[in-house]
Amino acid sequence: MDRPLPRPAAPSLTMKPSPLATGIAFALALASLPAFAATTDDTSSSVKDLDAVTVHAQLDQARNALSPDIGSSQYQITAEDIQKQPLGASAPLSQVLLQAPGVVQDSYGGVHVRGDHANLQYRINGVLLPESISGFGQTLDARTIKSIRLMDGALPAQFGERTAAVVDITTRNGAELGNGGSAGLTAGSFGKINPNASWWGNQGRWSWFLTGNYDQNEVGLENPTRSRKPLHDDTHQGKAFADLTYLVNENTRLSVFAGFANNRLQIPVNPGQTPQFGYLDTTTFDSSQLDETQRETTRFGMLVLQGALGSTAYQLSAGQRYSDVAFNPDVIGDLVFSGVASQVQRSNRANTLQADFSTPLGSDHTLRYGLYGNYENARANNSSWVFPVDDAGQQSSTTPLLIPDHSAFHASTQALYVQDEWKIGDDWTVNYGLRGDRYKAFGHTEGQLSPRVGVAWNASDSTTVHAGYSRYFTPPASELIASSDIALYDGTTNQQPSGGNNTPLAERSDYYDIGVSQQVGEHLTLGLDAYDRRVARLQDEGQFGAAYIYSTFNYRRGHIHGLEFSADYSDGPFSAYVNAAYNKAIGTQVITSQYNLDPDALAYVANHWIHLDHDQKLTSSGGFSYAFAGHNRVGANYVFGSGLRSDIEGVPNGGELPSYLQVNLSAGHDFNAGSGHPLHVQLAVINALDRSYQLRDGGGVGVFAPQWGPRRGAYLSLQQDF
Question: Cα separations (Å) of 444 from 91, 163, 233?
Answer without folding.
Answer: 41, 22, 41
